[in-house]
Amino acid sequence: MCGFGGYFGSIRDAEALLTHMVAAIAHRGPDEQGKFVAPDAGLGHARLSVIGIGDGQQPMSDEAGNLTIAFNGEIFNYIELREGLIAKGRHFRTSSDTEVILQLYEEMGEDCLSLLNGDFALAIWDNRQRRMVLARDRMGVRPLFYTSKDGVLYFASEIKALLKVPGVSAEIDPIALDQIFTLWAPIAPRTAFRNIQELEPASVMIATQGQVTVRRYWHLDYPHRDEPSKITNEDHAAEELQALLTDAVRLRMRADVPVGSYLSGGLDSSLVSALAAGMTPRRLETFSVTFDSAEHDESAFQTEMASALGTRHHAIECGARDIASVFPEVIRFAERPIIRTAPAPLYKLSALVRQAGLKVVLTGEGADEVFAGYDVFKEARVRRFCGRQPTSRMRPQLFRRLYPYLPGLQQQSVEYLAAFFGTSNAALDDPLFSHRPRFKTTAAAKIFFSGDLRATLKGYDAAEELTSRLPEAFSLWHPLHQAQYLETRFLLPGYILSSQGDRMAMAHGIEGRFPFLDHRVVEFAARLPPEMKLKGLMEKHILRKVARHHLPAAIGKRTKQPYRAPEARSFVGAEELDYVRDCLGEASITAGGLFNAKAVAKLHEKCRMETATGFRDNAAFVGILSTQLWQKNFAGQAVGAARAA
């Protein structure tokens, strides 16, 4: 796990630029740094040593000096790939997975990407063909950003490095901001920064003199909804899943340093930890976040699971004030406004891992997307059920069963529930049917946008753009698979794996590994019939069949409790921090130009008075505060609403 930056084209002071770019992302690779400069190309690297500690320095060139790579991530099947290359007569100078990529590329060119089982972003300078090749892993675990300036292509693991390029400045992209306040994240390749793009997951970019092409080398696909499933025996399917998941964990235990595991107390991380505990020669170390608020805390389940596995368990308590204290740093590392505080506890958790002396942790992220664990999937099923009898007074009561952890919802009338979830007026053939309530509720926070920003965005519809990005086969999939695609293709890489994942872990030089996102597991799950994933209103049914052999019953049978953290109340009250008052003050809001100062003042006061606040107010408060922090961190000062891109 590392960070890198580089360029393709003719520039001055290449060594100095690479030094500045690498320094900006040194937190991603605190162990060592390296640079490579050639005519019209350069690569810089900050290394976190995990595999091939003694001989895996980067940038790495082949023996002939024709190919040079800078690489961020891990190739988990590198041993098998290496053995295959040796059988073909190839010789290796190092024990690293980095050299495996180089030699595979020499054999196959960019087609080698289809053989890699890993989380990665990479840049290969191909001196023979005078081209720069950039690529990113299938699921979008590792980030890669790029921009062009004066005919030169610049790229880096984080945008901070690109801001070191002379003439590249930080300016908010209003379209991206609208997408964040609707969809929770920008739609790649767009980022929060105007004129800075993100290479999309499962994509390869090839830059030659005068031409840049981007193509996808892998696609997430599902079977036709009317096509009989080839997977009919549930027990056999569970056995195959058990084997795939076990092997995914086995591969991700490969490292020249100890590997730990996050343990939330839920099904996913508990199963990963249980599998890992049986594979480590030493006592597995597990890590958890606890909360002082009962509605967020899962410490009882964490303790039970750690005890059952006999792990060396570490926990860090995260209170509301803890969230407020680290939030500016969270935004600096996330490099975008966010509407949830959930990344903050994970920022603190990765610091705990670093303090414990580890560099690598397994995590259960991805299971909810791949095996239909989120409430949004169940909610969509109930909404369709209600939509078939829109006058029913019984059916809307099912929504209370979906959200037992939201006491306010339990008190609402049937009429309110039907109206809130849109059961009477929803178009069942809407491609975004499953996510419309979430998008509508989130977008309500845009009421706080300034008049200038509203004018800039006039006529723009983030949901419409999302619809335009759906594959042609989308309409042929089962409704559950459509909903899964929306989560997996957009929100997972756009928010979960970035703002909550890579960016919070790498802030402290910690590499997260995701067994559920092994592409073999993802592809197998996509082929499963919907009822094996969501059976009635029981989420992750097939995964539970696997888990019952590994977990205590209290853990394996738990209903999904979404990971959440205290939100607006974290920032207000008697101990309100100065930066909160400054960022939300009238002068700062007015100077920023993105929000209505009077409306923000009323929202701030409402939260201070502890008036009941719902999702809209919490999302608006966090979104506004994070946007103001973004401007302070990256633009250097509050800036006005920009023109639409």
DSSP helical segment count: 28
Structural class label: alpha+beta
**Approximate helicity band:** 40-55%
Characterize the overall form: globular
Q: Please give the number of β-strands.
A: 17
State the gist of this model.
With 645 residues, the protein is α+β, with helices and mostly antiparallel strands. A six-stranded antiparallel sheet has the order 2-3-1-9-8-10. A six-stranded antiparallel sheet has the order 4-5-6-7-11-12, with helices on one face. Strands 15-14-13-16-17 form a five-stranded parallel sheet, with helices on both faces. Mean pLDDT is 93; it is low at 637-645.
What brief labels describe this structure?
alpha+beta, 6-stranded antiparallel beta sheet, 28 helices, globular
Structure description:
This protein has 645 residues and is α+β, with helices and mostly antiparallel strands. The strands form 3 sheets. Strands 2-3-1-9-8-10 form a 6-stranded antiparallel β-sheet. The chain has a 6-stranded antiparallel β-sheet with strand order 4-5-6-7-11-12, covered by helices on one side. Helix 5 crosses helix 16 (436-443), helix 6 crosses helix 23 (541-547) and helix 19 runs parallel beside helix 20. The protein is globular. The model is unreliable at 637-645 (pLDDT under 50).
